[in-house]
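Input.
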Amino acid sequence: MKNRIQPTTVERRMREDDFIVSKTDLKGRISYGNRIFIEFSGYSEAELLGAQHNIIRHPDMPRGVFKLLWDTISAGQECFAYVKNMARDGSFYWVFAHVTPSYSPEGRIEGYYSVRRAPHREAVRRMEDIYAQMRQIEQRAGPKDAPAASIAFLQDLLAGHGTDYDRFVLGQELT
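Output.
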């Protein structure tokens, strides 16, 4: 179903008091989505449950961002990221995501929990430019090397401005 969706230029903006919440298993299959997730994704709860979370992945998102996210959370750390998602009707919506591992009573990671809120518009403008550059690098690098190449670009860009990914996404301006 997802592959047949054509992106549109229609943007839907989250309201300031909205929080999109979802849970997945270790493989990224959705096990819970709140009503705001259902509203913005455009999918029914039945369509979302059991589906891969990437059902809402927008093609404008560089693969490197998701590699960075998955590497971070699978290592047991929290991750913050700006993400452009695509709804079932092809419209898009930006979120500021906070993704954390969920643990079993024995202390093993058993899934992931994500809370997304409305991003700051200036951050979206910055990320659109950076993500466009990352996608160009990924295209030149080819499928196998794309994520690593775009992550290296992002890390070099941020290091050149005296910051790292976490500080950048949590609000430090590029100087």
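The chain has one domain: 2-169.
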